[in-house]
Amino acid sequence: MPTLMLLRHAKSDWSDPTLADFDRPLNRRGRRAAPLIGRYLRKQDLLPDLVLCSAARRAQQTWELASTKLRSEVPVKLLRSLYLAPPSRLLAAVQRQPDEVERLMLVGHNPGMENLAAQLSGGGRAELRARMQEKFPTATLAVFGFTAKTWAAVASGGGDLQRFVVARDLE
User: Fold this and answer.
1) What three-state secondary structure class fits 49?
2) Is 145 helix (H, G, I), strand (E, B) or coil?
3) What's the pTM?
4) Cβ contacts of 117 within 8 Å, gap of 6 or more
């Protein structure tokens, strides 16, 4: 059963108005939050087989800091196409992945991540779904399982929301 993990980048720094949005780094809170997600992934045995990460600086830093807690190397593809991508583009990226990848993670941005999560969610615990629909903050991880046998078959409404984890709740 394919497992998809959606990780919204951690809190970014807006202090330098001369930086392009793509180049904004994480702020102090973001640099604290990202490793919490990595530690959670390790403790819950949720190591991804592949990470597709937005090439934006804040997304890269989120994954880099989270991955320091995994104690294992995970292949990462940096994709400029995931920067501020709409849900349709994110889903297309998921559907193109090889079936050997059982656990796939996307690291990206809102509103695309939140909208994709809502689009995929067809089942799961009601309280998790309600919490996810209320807000999808920075440094948040949503984990979906699918009955689909291939990534190409993953579709709207086909995901079972298994976990919804906000980094600030892990502190």
Assistant:
1) coil
2) strand
3) 0.97
4) 6, 132, 136, 142, 144, 161
Phi–psi pair at 19, nearest 5 degrees: -80, 140
- Which token pair is 151? 């990534």
Write the pLDDT tens digit of every residue in 113-137: 999 999 999 988 889 999 999 999 9
> Is 148 in contact with 120 (CB distance < 8 Å)?
no
Q: Summarize pLDDT for 151-169 with one digit per residue, the tens.
A: 999 999 999 999 999 999 9
Delineate the domains of the chain, giving CATH numbers in brackets: 3-8+24-170 (3.40.50.1240)
- Residue in 71, 19, 9 with CA at minimum distance from that of residue 41: 71
What CA–CA distance (Å, rounded) separates 133 from 141?
13
140-146/103-108 β-pairing: unpaired
